[in-house]
């Protein structure tokens, strides 16, 4: 059975970007917290 792709809301994306820009946590910590692969956070 094919798995559906996750779709993230613009609000969620903005929240993640703001967290990255704060530079308080590493990308690895943020990826664990939000359940997103590190490579997706780097784009």
Automatic annotation (TrEMBL):
What Pfam families would the database entry show? HTH_Tnp_1
**InterPro entries xrefs:** Transposase_8 (IPR002514), Trp_repressor/repl_initiator (IPR010921), WH-like_DNA-bd_sf (IPR036388)
Q: Biological process GO terms, please?
A: DNA transposition
Q: Name one GO molecular function term.
A: transposase activity
Q: Which superkingdom is the protein from?
A: Bacteria
Return the protein name: Transposase
Query: What is the source species?
Result: Compostibacillus humi
């Amino acid at each position: 059975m094919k798995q559906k792709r996750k779709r993230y809301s613009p609000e969620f994306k903005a929240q993640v970007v703001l967290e990255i820009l704060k530079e308080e946590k590493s990308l690895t910590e943020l990826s664990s917290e939000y359940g997103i692969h590190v490579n997706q956070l780097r784009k």
